[in-house]
Amino acid sequence: TIDIENFKQHLDYLKKHNDKICEFLSGYPKILINKTPYSIPNILNISLMNIKPETFIHALEKHDVYVSSNTACSSGKISSAVLGVYGDKKRALTTIRISLSYMTTNEEINEFINIFESVYNKLMELADE
Question: Helix or strand or coil: residue 1?
């Protein structure tokens, strides 16, 4: 059976982490947060409008951070969910999916943010050269 009390606490905990990452990412004009009022808090989907998702994913992997490209319900390289919601093909082609768990710690969120910022800034410097 599902303990509804703990379920609600887990959802609130996930929402807090999701919101913290969104607040951090909102400082980057070329990163779009693909979130609606119906989005679940354990999944955060973003679009990197100026970096290939595969490049970014591999750069994060070097720091033992694992995210995935696209959405779970997509087939191929385009996110049909993001395309359907936003009607923006480029946005739908550049998605990254960040998964969270109720076991994710505050320290892990802070470490993720630090690594994300470092990798993003490094790749942006390379893109500007």
Answer: coil
Cα dihedral 62→66→69→75 (10° resolution): 130
pLDDT in tens, 53-87: 999 999 999 999 999 986 555 455 788 889 999 99
Locus of tokens 């720091």: 63
pTM (global) more than 0.85 = yes
Model confidence pLDDT, tens digit, residues 94-104: 999 999 999 99
- C-alpha–C-alpha distance, residues 113 and 115, integer Å: 6
Question: Which residue type is seen at 57?
Answer: I
For the CA atoms of the chain, what is the radius of gyration? 15
Phi, psi of 31 (to 5 degrees): -115, 120
Per-state percent for the chain, helix, strand, coil, to nearest 5: 50, 15, 35
* Inter-residue long-range contacts of 18-22, CB under 8 Å, 24+ positions, other chains counted: 18/42, 18/44, 18/100, 20/109, 20/113, 21/98, 21/109, 21/112, 21/113
Nearest alpha carbon to residue 46 among 26, 60, 20, 65: 26
